[in-house]
Amino acid sequence: MSEKIRINDMVVRFANVNGTGSSSSNEIFSKAVFRMGIPVSPKNIFPSNIQGLPTWYEVRISGKGYLGRRDDIDILVGINPQSMEKDIASVRSNGYFIYDNTRQLHDDMIREDIHMIGIPMMQLSIDHYEVPRLQQLFKNIIYIGALATLINLDLDVVKAIISEQFEKKPKLIPPNHKALDLGANWVKENLNYPLDVRLEHSNATGDKIMMDGNAATGLGAVYAGATVLSWYPITPSTSVAKNFETFAKKYRVDPETGQNNFAIIQAEDELAAFGMAMGANWNGARAFTATSGAGISLMNEFIGLAYFAEVPMVLVNVQRGGPSTGMPTRTQQSDLLPCAYASHGDTKHVLLLPATPTECFDFMADAFDLADQLQTVVFLLSDLDLGMNIHMTEPLSWDDARKFNKGKVLNKEELDAVEDYGRFKDVDGDGIGYRVIPGTHPSKGAFLSRGTSHDPYGVYTEDGVVHAGEIDRLIRKFNTAKELVPQPEFYQKENQGKHAIVFFGTTTYAALEAMDILEQNGEPIDAMRLRAFPFSNIVKDFIDAHDTIYVIEQNRDAQCRSLLMIELGIDPTKLKSILNYDGMPITADAILKQLQQHLHDYDGLQPPDHRQNGSSHSLKTTLL
Amino acid sequence: MSEKIRINDMVVRFANVNGTGSSSSNEIFSKAVFRMGIPVSPKNIFPSNIQGLPTWYEVRISGKGYLGRRDDIDILVGINPQSMEKDIASVRSNGYFIYDNTRQLHDDMIREDIHMIGIPMMQLSIDHYEVPRLQQLFKNIIYIGALATLINLDLDVVKAIISEQFEKKPKLIPPNHKALDLGANWVKENLNYPLDVRLEHSNATGDKIMMDGNAATGLGAVYAGATVLSWYPITPSTSVAKNFETFAKKYRVDPETGQNNFAIIQAEDELAAFGMAMGANWNGARAFTATSGAGISLMNEFIGLAYFAEVPMVLVNVQRGGPSTGMPTRTQQSDLLPCAYASHGDTKHVLLLPATPTECFDFMADAFDLADQLQTVVFLLSDLDLGMNIHMTEPLSWDDARKFNKGKVLNKEELDAVEDYGRFKDVDGDGIGYRVIPGTHPSKGAFLSRGTSHDPYGVYTEDGVVHAGEIDRLIRKFNTAKELVPQPEFYQKENQGKHAIVFFGTTTYAALEAMDILEQNGEPIDAMRLRAFPFSNIVKDFIDAHDTIYVIEQNRDAQCRSLLMIELGIDPTKLKSILNYDGMPITADAILKQLQQHLHDYDGLQPPDHRQNGSSHSLKTTLL
Amino acid sequence: MSYIKPTFRHPSSTKNEAGFYRADYEGKISTLCAGCGHDSINASIVAACYEMNIEPHKVVKLSGIGCSSKAPAYYLDNSHGFNTVHGRMPSVATGANMANKDLTYLGVSGDGDSASIGIGQFVHVSRRNLNMVYIMMNNGCYGLTKGQDSATADVGSLSKSGSTNQFSPIDMVGLALELGATFVARSFSGDKTQLVPLIKAAMSHPGFAFIDVISPCVTFNNNKGSTKSYDFVRDHIEATSEFDFVPVKEEIAVEYAAGSQKTVTLHDGSHIQLSKLNPDWDPTDRSSALDKLQKAKTAGEILTGLLYIDPESDDLHSMLRTTDTPLNELSQDVLCPGSKILEEVNAGLR
Amino acid sequence: MSYIKPTFRHPSSTKNEAGFYRADYEGKISTLCAGCGHDSINASIVAACYEMNIEPHKVVKLSGIGCSSKAPAYYLDNSHGFNTVHGRMPSVATGANMANKDLTYLGVSGDGDSASIGIGQFVHVSRRNLNMVYIMMNNGCYGLTKGQDSATADVGSLSKSGSTNQFSPIDMVGLALELGATFVARSFSGDKTQLVPLIKAAMSHPGFAFIDVISPCVTFNNNKGSTKSYDFVRDHIEATSEFDFVPVKEEIAVEYAAGSQKTVTLHDGSHIQLSKLNPDWDPTDRSSALDKLQKAKTAGEILTGLLYIDPESDDLHSMLRTTDTPLNELSQDVLCPGSKILEEVNAGLR
Ligand SMILES: Cc1ncc(C[n+]2csc(CCOP(=O)(O)OP(=O)(O)O)c2C)c(N)n1
Ligand SMILES: Cc1ncc(C[n+]2csc(CCOP(=O)(O)OP(=O)(O)O)c2C)c(N)n1
Ligand code: SF4
Ligand code: SF4
Ligand SMILES: [Mg+2]
Ligand SMILES: [Mg+2]
After folding, report:
1. Are B346 and A557 inside 8 Å of each other by CB?
2. How far is CA A465 from the centre of its chain?
3. Which residues of C make CB contacts under 8 Å with D?
4. Sheet of strand A73-78: strand arrangement
5. Computed over its alpha carbons, how large is the radius of gyration of chain C?
6. Ligand 4 neighbourhood includes D65 CB (under 6 angstroms)
7. Residue C304: which of C256, C268, C271, C270 has the closest Cα?
8. Atom in ligand 1 nearest the alpha carbon of residue C139
């Protein structure tokens, strides 16, 4: 039952009950690993519930810098009796199960092929703290202390983090430090340590930061000059709004007057949230909303209005598991197609597809420029994994020389110089007309925005040919968008073979790891990361340059593959799917496995059977 | 300026002001032509307005039975000064412009290459009727009388129709007959008649009927046993609800108690309309809603719920011109993709695509069976042209031996016999579980329907693999649907060539006419009419059997073509588009012209330039 | 037949204090039915803006969808406007107002637009006390979709489709009062003497100002008529089951003194009973307003006038403490924290 | 930590008149926070149904989305239910009810679900007088999304995110009264002596019966606490800016006599003032109810009890004159006019 020592390469999973304060201590653990210079990638797997249900916190630690999930769990810290049986089963052979032995473990639970490590966590807490609710809180710190000792996590680093966290409540620091020591000391006194899987200080994190995507998105909006946010609470997008509020209160309150250089409205629903942000954008401010799941469906009517009335609009969609209310606390990329063509009638929208919190920041700032330039709805398509988990990511940067690009807006003087102003006249041939902000000019440039058919002057028409001309112009504008949006990223100097993988957003980590493994196996594969829709010619060229494209995405219906067919006219038989839609971020393993299957028996039409992560998932083969 | 005599082959267009009572008299005209045994196809081209704006009523009369539009107008009855200039311009060379010369026509208006026929319509009316509002009403009948004489429309037939129409208000008959005679006699006394384009009694209408699609849809729902209708007014679907109400009041009131065997609720909006109908279906009644345009967008959240909670639901979408509020009184087929994949997350829905009022009736009845069998949302995708215009169509028929197919529903006894009931257990391998209607059994079979993830028993789960298994089952169910839905229609005994056209719904008339012309030219083309989504293997086989497929549809984005690619994996380069989206029904001419263009210079990706009807439409070439 | 309908162009060509002619406040020629109450309201809006000396381009016009919501096209052609979607005007108005607190926001809506699909936004915009004028052109029916009952239609009224309305009407004035709206009034479309000052007062009110304006629909109003010739037309319509004939009618104008009552005969011969608040009515007492309203209802009267105003009204901007400069005018310097701050942020995340 | 929480299984094992044990009315083990007011209401629902001798399968449970809307899982396991989407329960209830008038429709919702996103459906279901019980579990916040203010939150209350609510709360009881609802009541989650009879009365009422139940959220209630240890926890939460710790709390139970008042201390030490209607209160007078409500509000009291009932209430089915047989039981014979009629229809269309 012993194996060779593994350094900075493990998956630790905490199994807790939600509402017991565990996720903050588990996050301290992740941060401490990061502070040791070791790349780390935590995933908070929480229920759609406030208290009492199982919740997990999974931490991938990888000296090589792999930030995707990995399936085999090395260490499971199992605090939750409800899920314990499953938790124990989920540990890899020879792995470690750490539990609270304040109450004895039932014999049935014992697995011979793993290490079962009992620590009297609750007992220690009861012995040292009086108030029951504090006993519970500190138990969470106690197990961190114990684990730290077991895997060589630097306790001083953990303590420093706690001190920083409670900087403004210093009286909380000593009891927390004490709890850490309680756990650490108990291990030192009672167990062999460190384990075979363990940590070592490293410098593999560079100048990277740890941040969640929703915080980065909220901050990006502040940097982009957004002044109006209207929103309605929904997981997992709520924290975009919360973060915008936090940052705005920090950086946008007039120091002299104490007045706010921003306005945030919690709307009565998502329809109103969209309407408000759209109204503000229409009136020349920068405004946005953020939503998820059902919120997108509810906004469909308004999305069509913004599209056809050509109002700039930024809409953050932090995707969760669908369909319907679905898995609200799990991740998916299943709103691609519904967002690309949201609303009835013929519509097409711009989607930005960030893969890291840094890109959330950058793309959010870009989104406002693009919305203003293109006078249309720009979606930032994030997801729960990206938005709510903290990620090791490039530091944020801002070029102070950068100027907000407000697109084609005429001021009074410019308007005076225009002969025959028409809101939708395509004078530049790019499909984009000139806006005038209300209040600009006493006698020129006013128009009545509308969702009904209009001519190039914005005047109501029932002339179908004029209408068709206007919606043709919208296609022209969409073509303009192709070159303005973030272009794809490539990972090879030049194309190396006939096969390639295509991915976007949060499948990136696992895709990069899979590529690395393939490369190590002497089978390097070309790769392209999509960063926006519509797709530019570069995307088409890359696909044309390969015989087979494996599109990796986290939805059932291969939505990105559909978009590639529809918009670029790619032959479907050339586009093969690697899918995952069990709500958990995809693993490199799952990618490699499906790739393997494809190479053997793929019919080109329907995705292959194995569409979820994990070897232990005995999903029965479905007859697609 | 004279040409050879043309019998039973003309396009007559009436140009009126809306709110003046013209459309009822124009409809009388159409019906009279039909009664003469001549195929006729009227289109009411009305504004989104109640009074005072231009409205047209265009009647295609074709002894050959062509029911599509044709562009060259032979006779224009121009009653509307607002549109007169355009109206005169729209008449084909050598055609006829008939106008009210009570006020003299301006010299500018006169076209030398057409016949300008002035008739003192208003003067005749003023001379014979006292009350101003009646003068206006009878003017409409006067011009029908005049026109009848000019083209040999049988005046007795017209009179008979009027007598029937006013059967319950007999005092209205004589003044209307008198008005007819006034017009007819004035022509007889003052003009040469008949014109070179004229009518002759025929027997080309067989046992056909004249009916609008929305009436047929409403009646279909009555026949299918729908008992609950919840709806919200919106053009052009409003008359589906109105007709259901009319028919239900006729056929569904208990003769003894006077009580209603139905319930109709005008909801507060489309969200509520959907929710009500869904709730009724969930509770074992047959229920539906009907909407258009924005209504579909607003229902997106609920559509996803019905999909994932697997509640039978019938949703009629009478499509209008999009995007947004768009052209609410014009026709398009631009909700195909938005309906097929409505709602966030991965969803797929069943669409029925009727082409005639008869099919509206049949498919509406089928829709309820399919919804119950498949336990999902079934869309009836009609459009304004089909729904609101009267069409010459096959008589309606109903097999009295037909039994409502309520799908898999367990009653108390069946439930007692089931060992381990689970709402979503796929015991038959077709992806469809067994429903239990509330109230069935005191202790078995109850479940809590939900939009959140659930296991096969309907119990809430956050296990992603279970969730993935359930949404895989939904794909299995969707595959089951393929063979249950109406199958495509073919027009050739066997395939004749490498090219084929594919169409559906209201492009059918024009497509058939185009085929006829091609056949006459010795270039017959294969054809398939799609009647439902998802597409069955028959659809794929037909496409596979041809090199090039021309997909004819009335939207900008070639939505049906997209569905064919996505669902059948057809190579996009093989699918070429013939499009029209100016809000008017497509013409055979437009189809032939685009076909011609394709044969020359089509790149396979984007639709060709000429995407609207009509040679006079000088739409500037867009840079797609 | 609106194209022969006289426009509102007033003979007077006097400039107002802001330097504008009355014509500068007018819009496109109306395409509403001749005699439609909504057009009378449009005229009052023009008059009020002219008299208020508002610069036309400092007004933002908003609406939803309906005959009433087409109105913004028919006044203030030099103002920007947004004809939004059905029932959602308030949210767009809210956002627009947030972007620029210095303009005047004038929303119009119908009773279908406000009391059915839009009731949620109505409730919440009034709760937020958004600084805007909200005129509901109330005809008890859905004009544009051809006469269905709206939620403000009276019990037992017969819509043109022949079915009797069974549901008790929503009194939007009562609702606004219950919701804490800070300016609540009612008037009649044809009563310009009352309506113009009300609109002016509403525009001056620093918060949400709601005016319910009874505005007869000449085409689809909900009561059986009585005049002979009208019956003939109705017979015609019933027989053809086409509502495609709209006889040309005249605007209904009324004038009556404060404190008095007035019976108004609608186009189809039916009557409504208007009752104007006394000149000495104290409009700052919400519960007496509710009470008075209740009593008028019981008496079958439609109470008109300014029922309630909160003189201390705090609008949404003051609740949110937004800066005095319109948000859409703030410069990048003020808005963007810049790269140095970002370095600090990064540092905090390591 | 609900899995160790006792269920509602009552020691009594007496059958009721319908032949069911109390346990037959229970549901799955609750996953709400320990001490959540919603669970107290669930217990009252179980009690009421048991005492009413309702057959469990003759009840349909409905809800929207929220902690409160999860409740149907925790009672009446032998009843069908529909956990719909956020704010749209009333429409689904309306349809279900139309399909089968013979079942009892019991809807629960939250204040977010009802007063924000769902206010439109609330207004209209009450206007239609749908025969259903509508219980709003009112905690003044959005529990499930972690404590944002709802539209019923009191002015000035501090939500856990730290911002002060500026908007005046919507009083759903006042609104329902203004809208003409036919049964309007309010209670407190922990007051079973009052709540159980109210639920029973509501179930007996042949129309829309609304009960606003104040139901403290132990986790995100909106007031600053005072007990020492609680402060410590709050500090902890503020510092980590994670609301992931929910101390286990006890249900708040209260009992007080009709006509009396009661101060209730919430979990965080803050207080609310309940005031129970007198036993001789006449609940058939809508305007005195409105008046009484207004006065209690001014006095800072939360009025509880059955404020108003219309004993002559006509529900939607009677307004629509639907047949006595549930629509979902009508046979094809009755529903389908058959081929002969169709021939007549065809004939009329030639
Ligand atoms: C989402 C949506 N549903 C339905 C419609 C159709 N529609 C247009 S106007 C209208 C009702 C208008 O009634 P009201 O607001 O009272 O205005 P009025 O025409 O009576 O002035 C409706 C239902 C629409 N445009 N959008
Ligand atoms: C359309 C939509 N928007 C937002 C959400 C997210 N959401 C879930 S519950 C909830 C609020 C619940 O508040 P309330 O109804 O008061 O219930 P409570 O949890 O307080 O009992 C929200 C906003 C959702 N599920 N659906
Ligand atoms: S239909 Fe009625 S509301 Fe609409 S314009 Fe005509 S009169 Fe006015
Ligand atoms: S968060 Fe509040 S409302 Fe939700 S279960 Fe917990 S205590 Fe109840
Ligand atoms: Mg109206
Ligand atoms: Mg709540």
Report:
1. yes
2. 43
3. 116-117, 119-120, 123-124, 127-128, 151, 166-168, 170-171, 174-175, 178-180, 287, 290-291, 294, 319-320
4. A40-45, A54-62, A9-17, A73-78, A91-100, A115-119
5. 22
6. no
7. C256
8. 20
Å between D288 CA and nearest CA of chain C:
10
Chain A residues whose CB is inside 8 A of the C83 CB are: 448-452
Phi, psi of A488 (to 5 degrees): -65, 160
Nearest Cα residue to atom 23 of ligand 1: B233
Mean pLDDT of B505-514: 98
Q: Is residue C194 part of a domain?
A: yes
CB C39 within 8 A of CB C190: no
Exposure pattern of D324-350 as b/e (b: 16+ CB <10 Å)?
ebbbbbbeeeebbbeeebbeebbeebe
Q: Give me the residue label for tokens 């989407």.
A: D85
Would you state the structure tokens that stand for residue C140, as one six-digit string? 């008890």
Residue among D144, D148, D152, D222 to mutate when testing ligand 4 (max atoms within 8 A of CB): D144
d(CA A20, CA A17): 6
Helix segments in A62-165, DSSP class H: 84-90, 121-128, 132-151, 155-165
Does the beta-carbon distance from D337 to B287 stay under 8 Å? no
Give how far Cα B610 sits from Cα of A469, B511, B556, B590, B606, Å.
11, 17, 11, 8, 12
Q: Find which of A324, A467, A606 to mutate to test the B interface (most B CBs within 10 Å of its CB).
A: A324
What are the residue ranges in chain A where pLDDT is below 70? 1-3, 601-624
Say how far apart CA D23 and CA D32 lie, in whole Å: 20
The answer to whether the Cβ–Cβ distance between D119 and A268 falls below 8 Å is yes
Mean pLDDT by 10 residues, chain D (350 residues): 43 85 96 95 98 96 98 97 98 98 98 98 98 97 93 74 77 96 96 96 96 92 45 63 70 89 81 90 92 91 95 93 98 98 97
Q: Beta A377-383 vs A313-319: how paired, if at all?
A: parallel
**Domains, in order of start, for chain B:** 6-198 (3.40.920.10), 211-393 (3.40.50.970), 489-612 (3.40.50.920)
Strands D271-276 and D261-265: antiparallel
Q: Has residue C88 got a pLDDT over 60?
A: yes
Query: Angle, to 10 degrees, between the axis of helix C119-127 and the axis of helix D119-127?
Result: 120
Distance D86 CA to ligand 2 centre (A): 6
Compare all CA atoms of chain B with the CA of A294 and give the residue at the minimum distance.
B301
* Subunit contact D99:B283, Cβ cutoff 8 A: yes
SS3 content of chain A, % helix, strand, coil (to 5): 40, 20, 40
pLDDT at res. B363: 98
pTM (two decimals): 0.96
Cα A221 to Cα A229: distance, rounded to the nearest angstrom: 9
DSSP result, D194-240: HHHHHHHHHHHSSSEEEEEEE---TTT-SS----HHHHHHHHHHHHH
| Ligand 4 neighbourhood includes D126 CB (under 6 angstroms) | no
Cis (ω within 30 of 0) for the bond into B194?
yes
Identify the residue with better confidence: B614 or C214: C214
Ligand 6: distance of its center to the CA of D31 in Å? 16
**Structure tokens of D273?**
């003032």
A51: CB partners within 8 A, 6+ apart: A17, A18, A19, A20, D1, D2, D32, D33, D34, D219, D246
Domains of chain C: total: 1
**Chains within contact range of chain C (3+ C-beta pairs < 8 Å):** A, B, D
Q: Two tokens at B391? A: 């069409």
Residue with CA closest to ligand 3 atom 5: C32
CATH code for position D36: 3.40.50.970
Q: Which of B378, B360, B257, B357 is nearest to B310 (CA)?
A: B378
Parent domain of D310: 22-320
